[in-house]
Amino acid sequence: LSFGFWTSGGVASIAKIMDEPVSPWLLPHYFANPLMMSLFGFLVTFLFNDAPFYDHHTAFVLIRSGRKNWIVAKVLYVVIAAFLNALCWLVASLLPVLGRLQFTSDWGKVMISLANGQGASIAAEHDIPLAFFVSNQICDQYSGPEAMLLSFLLLWFVGVFLGFLIFCFNAWLGNNWGVIASGILSFLALFSTTYFIYWFFGNKLLYFSPVNWCSLYSLATGENISAPSLFHVFLVLSLCICGMIELIGKRFQKYDILL
C-alpha cells in the first residue's frame, strides 16, 4: 500500500487541480517502473515460500484424502492464491484515487494528460511529487478496459508461474531452492530494462525475465516490436505452468512424506 500511494498518489492531486474524475484504469501503468515489477516478484516469492505447504497434519490428510486429491488441492491453492494476489494489486492501484474515481469506458482526461505530458507539467508547476508514468503507446494500442484486463491476467499468470516454480524446485531439490530461483528472477526484473543492460542486450533479456511479463510496458507495443509479444508470453507461461504441474504430480505420486 505504501508503494501504491507513492506510485499513484500524485494522480489524485492532479485530478483535483484539473477538476476532473479519474478513470479506474491505473493498473496497466502501475508497473511502468521496474521497481514495481521486482517488488511484485518478491512479494509472490514470500507468499509461496513454504511450498509444498507441509504441516504436522499433512501425513494424516494424505491418508484420508489420497495423494491425487492432495496434489489437486495444492495446485488449486497456488492458482487461487495468485488470483487473489493479483486482485489485491488491482485494489491497491485504485485506493490512492478512490475519492475522485469514476468508471468510464475510455482512459479519461486525467490519464490522457499524463500520457501527453500535460499532467507532468501541472505536477511540476504545483510541486506535486509524481512517480506515475503513462505511455502514449499503451493508451493508443489498448482501450482502458482492455489494458486493465490484460494487466490483471499477466499478474495472475506470472504469479501462478512463480508459485509453481517455487513448488517444483522445493519439491525436487529441497527447501529454499525454489525461493532462490524465484528471487533471482525477481532481482533480474529490476535490471533487465535499465539503460546499461539495454545498451548491451536490447530487449533480448526480456525473453528470459518472466517477472517483467507482469507489465504491458515490457511487452511489444507500438514500434517496440523487438520485445516479447502477448502471444509469446501467455504461450510460454501456460506451457511452463503445465510442465511444472506434471513434474509436481510425478514427484508426489510416489514420494514418502516424513513428518
Describe the structure in brief.
By secondary structure, the chain is an all-alpha fold. It is 65% helix and 0% strand.
Backbone shape? elongated
Number of extended strands: 0
H and E string: HHHHHHHHHHHH
The parts where pLDDT drops under 50 for at least 5 residues are none
Proportion of helical residues: 55-70%
| SS class | mainly alpha
First and last CA, distance: 37 Å
Q: Specify the number of helices.
A: 12
Work out the strand percent: under 5%
The chain-level mean pLDDT equals 85
Radius of gyration: 20 Å
The major beta sheet can be summarized as:
none
What do these coordinates show?
It contains twelve helices and no strands. The chain is mostly helical. The mean pLDDT is 85.
Q: Which helices and strands, and how do they pair?
A:
Blueprint: H1 2-18, H2 27-30, H3 34-47, H4 58-65, H5 67-94, H6 109-116, H7 118-125, H8 136-141, H9 144-173, H10 177-191, H11 195-201, H12 230-253
